[in-house]
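Re: [ENG-882] Designed sequences occasionally contain unexpected residues at chain ends

Forwarding the minimal case from QA. Structure tokens:
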């Protein structure tokens, strides 16, 4: 039994396809198939059901899978331990971020990290906060900047790096455009333009409305504040925006802090509380925490 066979087996299982697994591994598909057939011959049982449109685990395959993953993890852990003891920092780190952050200057931090550790490959992925949290919990993402509601996600450690008020933004002809502030109860009776569920800012809005016994009327959802601002500018509703995003449209929209209660959104650096992290991931987390102290 070879580690390569276990690696191929895990890849096919995760991709549910020999073709996708081969592309992920950067090898030819026949080679993947041949190695897994050899593994099945050595174990004396089929590990994969190839009869359907997607590849599925057999009962024996499901029993073998956790051991295959554990073996691969043990080998990777041994390599990382040697690297750490010899002071060599290499490997791969994935950092996630919600789409709309501009003020963090993340590329500048990553450029400095790359200069200090050129052997570390870095992947940046953008997604909503729920997907980023799931990615960190599963180990696919090492650290991420996420928007927070009132609760910190279980299984993660967080460090708040941005905290700002939420604003309501309307086009100049809107009925609310003469106000300097707007109460949450007033907003709940208007058409709102908001980030979708799964974002921290939407969680802040929904939680505040629930606490006040209100049900917000969400007319439009969009994944990025600039799109929300554009929809509000067309008179399609009241955009709910973080202050930094709202200020960028002060010339086009009338801006009002949300009051009674005042709503505040938070962006936090987050990483997994438990489980193995590579030396490269630990180094990047330390760099980010120092760059954006709480």
């Amino acid at each position: 039994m070879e580690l390569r066979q276990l690696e191929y087996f895990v890849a096919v299982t995760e991709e549910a396809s020999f073709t996708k697994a081969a592309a992920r591994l950067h090898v030819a598909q026949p080679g993947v198939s041949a190695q897994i057939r050899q593994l099945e011959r050595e174990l004396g049982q089929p590990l994969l059901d190839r009869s359907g449109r997607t590849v599925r685990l057999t009962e024996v395959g499901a029993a073998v899978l956790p051991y295959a993953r554990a073996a691969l993890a043990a080998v990777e852990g041994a390599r990382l331990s040697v690297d750490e003891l010899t002071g060599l920092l290499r490997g791969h780190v994935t950092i996630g971020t919600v789409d709309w952050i501009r003020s963090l200057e993340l590329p500048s931090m990553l450029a400095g990290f790359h200069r200090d550790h050129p052997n570390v490959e870095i992947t940046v992925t953008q997604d909503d906060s729920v997907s980023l949290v799931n990615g960190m919990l599963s180990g696919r993402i090492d650290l991420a900047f996420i928007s927070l509601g009132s609760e910190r996600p279980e299984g993660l450690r967080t460090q708040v790096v941005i905290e700002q008020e939420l604003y309501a933004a309307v086009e100049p002809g809107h009925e609310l455009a003469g106000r300097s502030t707007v109460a949450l109860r007033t907003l709940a009776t208007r058409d709102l333009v908001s980030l979708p569920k799964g974002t921290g800012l939407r969680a802040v809005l929904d939680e505040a409305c629930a606490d006040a016994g209100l049900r917000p009327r969400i007319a439009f959802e969009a994944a990025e504040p600039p799109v929300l601002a554009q929809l509000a500018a067309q008179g399609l509703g009241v955009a709910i925006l973080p202050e930094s995003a709202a200020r960028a449209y002060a010339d086009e929209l009338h801006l009002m802090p949300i009051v009674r209660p005042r709503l505040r959104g938070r962006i936090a650096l987050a990483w997994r509380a438990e489980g193995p992290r590579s030396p490269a991931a630990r180094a990047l987390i330390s760099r980010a925490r120092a760059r954006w102290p709480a």
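QA comment: On inspection the terminal residues look reasonable. The chain is about 45% helix and 25% strand. Proposing we downgrade this to a documentation issue.
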